[in-house]
UniProtKB/TrEMBL annotation:
The keyword DNA repair does not apply. It comes from Streptococcus ovuberis. GO terms for biological process: cell division; cell wall organization; peptidoglycan biosynthetic process; regulation of cell shape. InterPro entries: Glycosyl_transferase_4 (IPR000715), PNAcMuramoyl-5peptid_Trfase (IPR003524), PNAcMuramoyl-5peptid_Trfase_CS (IPR018480). The lineage of its organism: Bacteria, Bacillati, Bacillota, Bacilli, Lactobacillales. Keywords: Cell cycle, Cell division, Cell membrane, Cell shape, Cell wall biogenesis/degradation, Magnesium, Membrane, Metal-binding, Peptidoglycan synthesis, Transferase, Transmembrane, Transmembrane helix. The gene is mraY. This is Phospho-N-acetylmuramoyl-pentapeptide-transferase. HAMAP family: MraY. Pathway: Cell wall biogenesis; peptidoglycan biosynthesis.
Amino acid sequence: MILMGSFLAFALTIIGMPIFIKTYQKAKIGGQQMHEDVKQHQAKAGTPTMGGTVFLLVALSLGLIFALITQASWSTYGILFILFLYGLIGFLDDFLKVFKQINEGLNPKQKLVLQLVGGLIFYLAHINHSGSGLLNVFGYDIQLGWLYIFFVLFWLIGFSNAVNLTDGIDGLSSISVVISLLAYGVIAYKQSQLDLLIVIGIMIGALLGFFVFNKKPAKVFMGDVGSLALGGMLAAISIALHQEWTLLLIGLVYVIETASVMLQVAYFKHTKKKYGEGRRIFRMTPFHHHLELGGLSGNGRPWTEWQVDFFLWGLGVVMSLLTLVILYL
């Protein structure tokens, strides 16, 4: 049933994506706008975006069908809910940018409020069924009680935005999330949560189908509708499996991407105040752009998108394997 779900999701996404791209182009909708300083990205201006709509519809439809068939637990429905709601938030954000030509889409406050509402509903469902506010920290359970709500909200919002930041070059975020989902698939299997494993398999299939069109040179981008949903899904899975801490390792790529932006902004403001001019730690953030502009060395040659992809995918694989070794060996 797991393989069936994955194959169906892959096939439906492969079928649906060309239809979406052609419809998008025929409607002459303004595509992805490039506001970055990476020269090679300027050629991508006008590329269709919001492709995440297709793989989300596929994953949600199949996920709900299989959840009903298998009489799934609350965990599966909770994850599907986050996938839907955070995807809807991303859709609204993209819609305003693409159709209404509002460059910032939803403003930060609007987006945060919607994410908080979704996170609160997920928390209430989680507490209602788990009956505890236990947080797993590197294998040790800590009773947070009512404070657990703040962790859940932080985790969901933080990682949804982290994956959103990672979605900056062709294929990077889609395969990075596939790698993360494979690791959580193993954990779900070990915990005998087969209904959740089916949903994970469905999303993997849908993302692999999307990657066919998102690999360099990308014919479509997933948009916020895809990236916000995927980040929220990963956070929800780690909570549902009661292995929250694992996302720090399995999702290290997203953590690095987010940390690079935060450090860059903080350091720039600090040096501007101290020296009268802002200075930078990285050539450009998020971190994948730093690699594009010069690799890991101080004065290195620029990396191609494929080089950046394989480096960060490789890091994701290593950290996922390390997590599984820590858990089960």
